[in-house]
Amino acid sequence: AGIGKCVAMDLARRNARTILACRSRERGQAAVEEIRAATGNPAVVLRLLDTASLASVRAFAGAVLREESRLDVLVNNAGVSGLPFAITSEGLERTFATNYLGSFLLTNLLLG
C-alpha cells in the first residue's frame, strides 16, 4: 500500500521485472494482481519478507540471489510507527528491527 505500491506500479509501467516484498501473502498478491492489470506487465511477482525478522531477511535475500540474474534497484520502504513496545523472537525491539536493522541487513546481503 502507499508509497511502496506507487513505486512498484511505476517500475512495472516501465516494463521492469518487479518483486514485491510483503509481509502478508494475501495483501501482497492483491497488489501484484492490481499492478499486473494496470500495467500489463506479467513480470510482477510476490516474495514474502518481514523486515522485523532477520531470519526472514536472510531467507529473502538468499532466494533473490539464487533466483535473479541481476538486481538494478532496491527500494527499502518498510516501516512501522506507533506500535506498542515489543521484542522480536530474535531479541530485538520490533520497531527498530523493522525500520532499520532489517533494511540495513537486506541491503548489505544483496550487495553481493
From TrEMBL:
Keywords: Oxidoreductase. Belongs to the short-chain dehydrogenases/reductases (SDR) family. One of its GO terms (molecular function) is oxidoreductase activity. This is RDH13 dehydrogenase. Gene3D superfamilies: NAD(P)-binding Rossmann-like Domain. InterPro entries: NAD(P)-bd_dom_sf (IPR036291), SDR_fam (IPR002347).
